[in-house]
Automatic annotation (TrEMBL), chain B:
Its EC number is 7.1.1.9. The gene is ctaD. This is Cytochrome c oxidase subunit 1. Keywords: Cell membrane, Copper, Electron transport, Heme, Iron, Membrane, Metal-binding, Respiratory chain, Translocase, Transmembrane, Transmembrane helix, Transport. NCBIfam families: CtaD_CoxA. It comes from Nitrincola tibetensis. Belongs to the heme-copper respiratory oxidase family. The lineage of its organism: Bacteria, Pseudomonadati, Pseudomonadota, Gammaproteobacteria, Oceanospirillales. Residues 33-541 form the Cytochrome oxidase subunit I profile domain. It comes from the Bacteria. The chain crosses the membrane at residues 45-66, 86-105, 126-144, 170-196, 208-236, 268-287, 294-315, 327-348, 360-385, 397-421, 433-454, 474-497.
Length: 187, 546
């Protein structure tokens, strides 16, 4: 008599319950990804900005303060391109429409495509940085040696918290042609 | 104690009709071990496997320490060094510490609750044999083109996806297998504890080791799916063009860290809660007093487990969290010091006015209390957000988690091994060799890890094969200590082999002050125990009795 009938039933019941709990945690894990995205979109926590053009905010200009917008660029993820911010710092009043120019240069002699992905810090400012026009909404194709100048039209929302005096917008260049070709870029 | 009459039923009773899970004829030779469904044999397999992995992971640590003995590159290339730090961490966490605790659970939980075996013996066999496969795969990546995993045991994306070696898919496979093994083991342990306790034993009558394992098993069920999910997302990012963690495709690398540490922080308690249980048995035995504050121990363990789910971002203070989040995670982390403090207080209160003797298991348990507390205090230092910005990713962190894992978890496992060795082998461990093992380990561990506090505070980053000259002295001391500690563990192998082959015979109750059902069966424990549930009278036998 190693195990009684009742404990066998009990074991089955316990196993069933733990499997349900396990299933619940699997679903929870899957749900965490969209939940994280929603959470970040609401709070702007990961510094991501909108991925398509936004309408301008019509709250009017806040002439009482200035916000310094720093524009920085980073490349070096394997794409032989150079990305330069032609206007490195722009001072704007919240609500004001401003434009910044960027130059993309393909330093190789092969046609390739890339995409500049923006990130705003401090991240609390991300959702108050509105882009009306941006090259970051789609990928760019450049012939070998080609160089183009592209604009960014943006507005800093007057709802920006008062303690933020400087917003830094960083663009990182990522290769796109290889991504499509290989399903992930590697060296 | 259970009454003496329980001895009458302890006849070895192989292959009777009631044992549906036993083959009619016991296989012999290697197949006996491959096919075994006996909790004691599977427990031994787990323990021997983890001992082997301790030496494999330990050798990698010695490669690291040899390279860091002096500045400059001497023995290995940085690429290989990175593989060593990564594999050392993965093997020690998933291959040595966790299987060792599962092995102890297999051996001791059925015997402590008066059950004849685990609730699901065949599943038990499967959970074990997944492990050699998992670690075979993991170790084989070292021989592959591009080398093994080299991104640290925390495998942060995109280092582990975009920039990872081609062998990463094998690494993911091995993590999946080890995770499935842990989940199945946890289900088995929960089913055993909740259903197979001897009549009369309530939950609050269980030994602390059983309690801590029950809570640990729930933690495993809760977080192993998260680990499985995160490595699956890595697999998709690498091979199927998704962008969970890839900023170029709209993903977020910080999401990886959130998911990983949502698993990772409960994981570190998975590696310490059973250690609390072992120490909570050994300290009362050798202080010859009952454990002080049994109920508070149970509640403290449960509190630590619950809090472990709301502290994960303290590993990520420097990723750019908003101030509110940093404050929340700082305070919730510090809150864990309260239940942990309760535990340390209870152990000390148990020692207070006890008739203490210092056999080897007790030495390791006392070493645990002192040095685990050092690791706990450096943990509180790391919880302080402004200080963490300085300590983050330095050797201070390395010192902290090695203090809680080596003289913490590992010492508790060794304490348990010395404590139950008479029950496993029938012979006491050699006391003299055991003392050498203990003292050399204590000296080695402190020589290795204490100077790391200083090199870390001085700014030495972790996971680097070469370092600035001002860290040379501390690193030399750490390396000498590392080799001393590593080679001292060979004494343990010697002790174990000696105890298996002979030595001083142990009676059923091997230690004068020991309590619990496992001490009512002979030493060595016969292959089948408690085929008839033993008598258990809470007023006499419960560790929580008044």
């Amino acid at each position: 008599m190693s195990k009684s009938q009742s404990s066998d039933v009990g074991v089955k019941r316990t196993v069933r319950k733990t499997l349900w709990a396990l299933m619940g945690m699997v679903l929870f894990t899957i749900a965490l990804v969209p939940l994280y995205d929603v959470f970040c979109e609401v709070t702007g926590l990961n510094g991501k900005t909108a991925t398509s053009a936004q309408v301008m905010s019509a709250q009017g200009r806040d002439e009482t303060r200035w916000v310094r917008v720093q524009l920085v660029t980073r490349s070096g993820t394997g794409l032989p391109w150079r990305l330069e911010a032609l206007d490195q710092v722009i001072a704007v009043h919240p609500g004001e429409i401003a434009q910044a120019r960027f130059r993309f240069t393909n330093t190789s002699d092969v046609r390739s495509s890339g995409r500049a992905v923006p990130s705003v810090s401090p991240s609390q400012g991300a959702r108050h940085f509105r882009k009306m026009e941006c090259f970051c909404f789609q990928e760019q194709w450049l012939e070998g040696g080609e160089s183009i100048e592209l604009p960014l039209v943006f507005q800093v929302d007057p709802a920006l918290p008062a303690d933020i005096q400087t917003l830094t917008l960083a663009y990182t260049l990522y290769p796109m042609s290889e991504v499509v070709a290989q399903g992930g870029y590697r060296e | 104690m259970a009454s003496e009459s329980t001895h009458a039923v302890l006849q070895p009773n192989v292959g009777t009709a009631e044992h549906g899970h036993h083959p009619a004829q016991m296989p012999t030779g290697i197949m006996r071990w491959v096919l075994t469904t006996n909790h004691k044999e599977i427990g031994s397999l787990y323990l021997l496997f983890s001992l082997l992995m301790l030496f494999v992971g330990g050798s990698m640590a010695l490669v690291i320490r040899a390279e860091l003995f002096q500045p400059g590159l001497q023995y290995v290339q940085p690429e290989f060094f990175n593989q060593m730090t990564t594999m050392h961490g993965l093997i020690m966490v998933f291959g040595a510490i966790m299987p060792a605790f599962v092995g102890l659970a297999n051996w001791m939980i059925p015997m402590q609750i008066g059950a004849p075996d685990m609730a699901l013996p065949r599943l038990n066999n499967f959970s074990f044999w997944l492990l050699p496969v998992a670690f075979g795969i993991l170790l084989s990546t070292l021989l592959m083109e591009g080398g093994g995993p080299n991104f640290g045991w925390t495998f942060y994306a995109p280092l582990s996806t975009t920039y990872a070696p081609p062998s990463t898919s094998f690494f993911i496979m091995s993590i999946h297998l080890a995770g499935i093994s842990s989940i199945l083991g946890a289900i088995n342990i929960i089913a055993t504890i909740l259903n197979l306790r001897t009549p009369g034993m309530r939950l609050m009558d269980m030994s602390l080791f059983v309690w801590t394992w029950l809570i640990t098993a729930f933690l495993l069920i809760a977080v192993m799916p998260v680990l499985a999910g995160v490595v699956t997302m890595m697999l998709l990012d690498i091979n199927f063009g998704t962008s969970f963690f890839d900023a170029a495709g709209g993903g977020d690398p910080v999401l990886f860290q959130h998911l990983f540490w949502f698993f990772g922080h409960p994981e570190v308690y998975i590696m310490i809660l059973p250690a609390f249980g072992i120490v909570s048995l050994i300290v009362p035995t050798f202080a010859r007093k009952r454990l002080f504050g049994y109920a508070s121990m149970v509640y403290a363990t449960a509190s630590i487990a619950l809090l472990s789910f709301v502290v994960w971002a303290h590993h990520m203070f420097t990723v750019g969290l908003p101030l509110t989040a940093e404050l929340f995670f700082m305070y919730s982390t510090m809150l864990i010091a309260v239940p942990t403090g309760v535990k340390v207080f209870n152990w000390i209160a148990t020692l207070f006015r006890g008739s203490i003797s210092f056999e080897v298991p007790m030495l390791f348990a006392l070493g645990f209390i002192v040095m685990f507390t050092i690791g706990g205090l450096s943990g509180v230092m790391l919880a302080i957000v402004p200080a963490d910005f300085q300590y983050h990713d330095t050797y201070f962190v390395v010192a902290h988690f090695h203090y809680v894992l080596v003289p913490g978890a590992l010492f508790a496992i060794l304490a348990g091994a010395y404590y139950w060795m008479p029950k496993w082998t029938g012979h006491y461990a050699d006391e003299t060799l055991g003392r050498w093992h203990f003292w050399l380990s204590v000296i080695g561990v402190n020589l290795t890890f204490f100077p790391m506090h200083f090199s870390g505070l001085a700014g030495m980053p972790r996971r680097i094969p070469d370092y600035a000259l001002q860290f040379a002295d501390f690193n030399m001391i750490s390396s000498i200590g590392g080799f001393l500690f590593g080679f001292s563990q060979l004494i343990f192998v010697w002790v174990l082999v000696k105890a298996i082959r002979g030595g001083e015979k142990a009676p059923a109750k091997a230690w004068e002050g020991a309590e619990g059902l496992e001490w009512t069966v002979p030493c060595p424990a016969p292959i089948h125990t408690f085929e008839t549930p033993p008598k258990f009278v809470p007023e006499v036998d419960s560790p929580s009795r008044h």
